[in-house]
User: What shape does this take?
Amino acid sequence: MKNIVKIFKLSLVVIGSLSALTSAVVAQELPNNQSNRGMGQGFNMPNFEDFDLNKDGMINAKEMDEAREKRMAEKSSEGRMMKNVGNQPTFSEIDTNKDGNINKEEFLAHQIKQRQ
Assistant: This one.
């Protein structure tokens, strides 16, 4: 009986380890713009990089407008509903330090606020 219990416990450890390993491999295989998106409410939220079109580490108003238009066109072409389009925050609401650009910290702070 003791051997059966030991085998059972060892099996649970092996299964748990394989599960963790599989999850890590799957996460690495996701494209960069998908790997850090959560499930549920925030799943469809874009990454900073989706809006930083010129890749300078900042989002200006023109980039935000272009990225939003692109996202809406993609959703529309996929036949997806565009919930809350009229409730999108303005550029100035996200640009909390009012320097005319949105940095990554401001962007992430806004997304955290949206998820609450």
